[in-house]
Amino acid sequence: MAFVLILLLAIAVVYLLNQYLFSYWSKRGIKQLEPSFFYGDGGDLIKFKKSMGEFFKDIYSKHKNERIVGVYISYKPVLVVTDPKLVQDILIRDFTTFHDRPMPVDENKDPISGHLFNIGGQKWRDLRVKLSPTFTSGKIKAMYPIIKNVGKVLEDYLDEQVNKGVNVFEFRDLMARFNINIISSVAFGIDNDCINEPKHFFRQMSAKIFDPNLMNGLRALITLLAPTLFHKLNMRILDRDVEDFIFSVVKQTVEYREQKNFSRNDFMQLLIQLKNQGYVSVDKGEKDSEEMKNHSDTKSKLTLNEIIAQAFVFFVAGFETSSSTLLYCLFELARHKEIQQKVQQEVDKVFKTSGPDGVTYDMLSELKYLECVIDETLRKYPILPVHVRTANRDYKIADSNIVIPKGASLWIPALGFHRDPDIYENPLEFKPERFLNSSNGDGKATGVFYTPFGDGPRNCIGMRLGKLTTKIGLSIIFSKFNLELNDKEMQDGELKFHPNQFVLTPSKLFNMKISRR
């Protein structure tokens, strides 16, 4: 009898505790979903049944008539922002209230966590100002020859393979190897040849970071559920061997360049300038930004650990964004022959004017239709499908009685906005023409709804370089080759995404046929 009473009491306590924890949003006058025991509203996410992008997109689709909706991922309360005008306020107008991300940062235990994407507050502001001059059009143009050389390696590789009679390629791995070559050269100052050497050590290390395995999925999930516990559980952003590899590569590169007085037009050289003088030298013809002029701490120098962290995040962001964007572009062009032909015609028209030095940086800027193809790809497949911010104070939503409490995590479902039929007509249709006369694809909404790189002061700092890399890869392929899907079942269906990844990663391999034009 006593056992039964204790059991009933325990059940009652658990029930009441659940009711209390799952009333966090309703008590604040915010509409919430109907959470279930333990999982809250996040069962599909926690059990890896849905990708993070699809999970938040589905919430958006069901509740887009609300301005904001309360959600529980297990027992963690988060807010999903479903109103484009409120997104605009959060990312731009009231950015000072929402400038941080709820990411785990402990630079003592995990130095590589102290990179631009993670850190917040004044430290983020100072670092953003320092790094912004490294991504000016002038600096990117100076890096162009490095990227162009990697493009030539890709071109020669495809030529050689086709000459051998190979006509089917798995493009997910090939585009990963192409981008590793570019990013390792630009970010770390190291030339390698992952294109011709699929088992190159750099490729193996990148696979540990990016491959959609269970460990990477758990890291992303714990970051979402309990960022403050991340380092208390002695978890790290990277496996120890990968972290040691990154530290070793950057340290050796910095030491070599400083000892040999060697310089190169790449991101690593600009980081070395920040280490030695606290600011990036302005090239002839470039001007300091007003932000840089008015900043009081522009000449404080970066430490070696800070350089390593920034090189790492540049590698991660540049690799994942560019390789996935390239892959999705190739997929859509392979199944839309008429669009592929338009790209080829534009490439032919621009490239026929190239001189003995080949295609120039300025010539790539003339590929306007190809730019639309990339923009439309990022609309349909935003690589970062959710943007997250933290409120650093209580915030009253305009024209409402709703107050977002200090410390709340806000999730902005970019994939939901990008695929909303009320914003984009026939959103699953791949239609580059949407962007011919509009920077947001002529979306029928007021506010911010096209955010492949985020928006506002904390948007992606390297988006221009990412687009350049994608343009080079696409223009090289379609200047010489035709592409078609090898798996005809993929012709009319929509892609499924891997549930173990924070970014939008396809769950299937991409075998495609290639032939000379």
Automatic annotation (TrEMBL):
It comes from the Eukaryota. Heme binds at residue 460. CDD domains: CYP6-like. It is a peripheral membrane protein. It is found in: Endoplasmic reticulum membrane; Microsome membrane. Its main location: endoplasmic reticulum. Keywords: Endoplasmic reticulum, Heme, Iron, Membrane, Metal-binding, Microsome, Monooxygenase, Oxidoreductase. InterPro entries: Cyt_P450, Cyt_P450_CS, Cyt_P450_E_grp-I, Cyt_P450_sf, Insect_CytP450_Detox. GO terms for molecular function: heme binding; iron ion binding; monooxygenase activity; oxidoreductase activity, acting on paired donors, with incorporation or reduction of molecular oxygen. Pfam families: p450. Its cofactor is heme. GO terms for cellular component: endoplasmic reticulum membrane. Belongs to the cytochrome P450 family. PANTHER family: CYTOCHROME P450, CYTOCHROME P450 6A16, ISOFORM B-RELATED. This is CLUMA_CG016217, isoform A. It comes from Clunio marinus. The gene is similar to Cytochrome P450 6a2.
